[in-house]
């Protein structure tokens, strides 16, 4: 988005604390800077760990949106400066654990503020809500998983301009719901995990513009007819009826019912207007009948993973297959016969996920006749890659050679299937393939050698294979390759992996031994947040001093030394330790 | 160098920088000024005045145009910017779409 010179300027301005000192007194320039430039500058300062509360002052007149999510350093002092940002429209403080009620006091009277995100700031309670009430223009408020109670939620009723309200994980009761009826502009309401019951659900009719509703993990069983609704999430609920009642029926676009217990699925869907429904998630549901799918002609995304779907029900999917682009049938009982019933009916299917199903190589030949496929997952199936020839033909035929018909295929996952090197040979003819992940103890160096001729490959996983040092040494990665995942290849030695990393610096090697190497060589411009935290601590210790215990050995992968149980125990004890210090700090 | 192949960029203080038209075209804004139909003064005389950009920054901008041409042709060198100039230069770059 930013032009090249703007990017170079930002890089130069945020190169070091000394560079910042050179420009931070240019007040007049900073005041008239367009907001998108100062926001980009501020983002970079934050990434480089160069931002501190008093530096925020220089952005007072130019910043309109600020995103500090996950920054554990943000506290009341930061908020005191942010409170003076005259033109601030959006303030995102999600996961800023140091934000408490008194820190929030600073936002009182910020008349331009329209969006506040305090998700998972667990120290915010009802008293903090009191401060929010003085920001009357507020349109979007997220306070999920904070310490706010039903009383605090009821108090939100005075923020009548609210359009989006996220109350996920809060103990919202039916009586709190009835107080919220004043929020007539509400379009988006998140109530997952709340104490709202059917009585509270009836009150939802009071929001005439409501189009998004999340009631996952609640005890709501009967949802009244909400004519403006388009997106519904009732995952993990017990559902008896949806939209029963008089009036114009909601034209649903997306419905998520993952893990929902549906008493009678045909009955539940009876009043649902599905002519525009394009996204349906029914994963982890236990009902047996799928005939209700027949009316859902507009579906593009269908997730039936971990459901009771069988071959017999696949015909219902085939009926409405014309528009389907994403189909997830993972961990169902669908076999090759089911895939056979599907082929020919899904001309636009781009993603087909079949991991954990009992399909075999016959399914591969059906799949290779689905012309639009881009992404296929065949992990943990009975696919072997070889079809045994009848009669006296001495050689088995590779089933993967049919995949070359799929001219758009970009991603193929074949983990934990019983395949051999020979079966993989045809995969090198897939010239669009950018992601291939294999995991099998019967693969050897030969697979690595074949694959190196796949021209577009970016991500290659060959996990748990019998790769040898010699094999890795002679492996020439395809030019585009960025990631080589060889975790669990236990024969490889550290020296060879190190040499490979050195010879191919563009490739990010993932291996138990390589991870140890990585951590030792980290440098602080790395984008990963975890690394930056470490580097910040290093800064505190003083730039040049290296603490005496910082020997190379401490970065060895600890998984090599401990058993799984011991590691879990360690993880627990360190978590307990960090929480205790956390509280001491405050 | 023929006159048609050059453009004159004039800073807020009135300093004039004569540079290759090809280099100036690195800026989308200047390109639009020089190629837009109709007879704008800029198109006719090959002169553009920037009352908002001071001389130091405009000089740096001109250096950048030439560096950018080299960079595009595959010569990867670093374009150094003094920290004092970063803010002003950033705003000029934003205005010039470069």
TrEMBL record, chain A:
Superkingdom of the organism of origin = Eukaryota
Please name the Pfam families in this protein's record. Answer: LRR_6 (PF13516)
Matching entries from InterPro entries are given as:
Leu-rich_rpt (IPR001611), Leu-rich_rpt_Cys-con_subtyp (IPR006553), LRR_dom_sf (IPR032675), Zyg-11_UBL_adapter (IPR051341)
Which residues fall in a compositionally biased region of kind Polar residues? Answer: 524-535
Coiled coil ranges? none
Task: Locate the region Disordered.
Answer: 524-549
Fetch the SUPFAM superfamilies from UniProt.
L domain-like, RNI-like
Name of the molecule in the record: Leucine rich repeat protein
- Organism in which the protein naturally occurs: Handroanthus impetiginosus
TrEMBL record, chain B:
Give the matching Gene3D superfamilies.
Potassium Channel Kv1.1, Chain A
Q: Which SUPFAM superfamilies match?
A: POZ domain (SSF54695)
Q: What is its main location?
A: nucleus
Query: Which compartments does it reside in?
Result: Nucleus
Q: Name one Pfam family in it.
A: Skp1_POZ
Domain SKP1 component POZ spans what residues? 6-66
Q: Which residues cross the membrane?
A: none
Q: Name one GO cellular component term.
A: nucleus
Kindly state which keywords UniProt assigns to this record, in alphabetical order.
Answer: Elongation factor, Nucleus, Protein biosynthesis
Could you give a single Gene Ontology term from the biological process aspect? Answer: ubiquitin-dependent protein catabolic process
**Signal sequence segment:** none
Could you give a GO molecular-function term held by this entry? translation elongation factor activity
Q: In which pathway does it act?
A: Protein modification; protein ubiquitination
What does the similarity note say?
Belongs to the SKP1 family.
PANTHER family in the cross-refs: ELONGIN-C
Q: What is this protein called?
A: Elongin-C
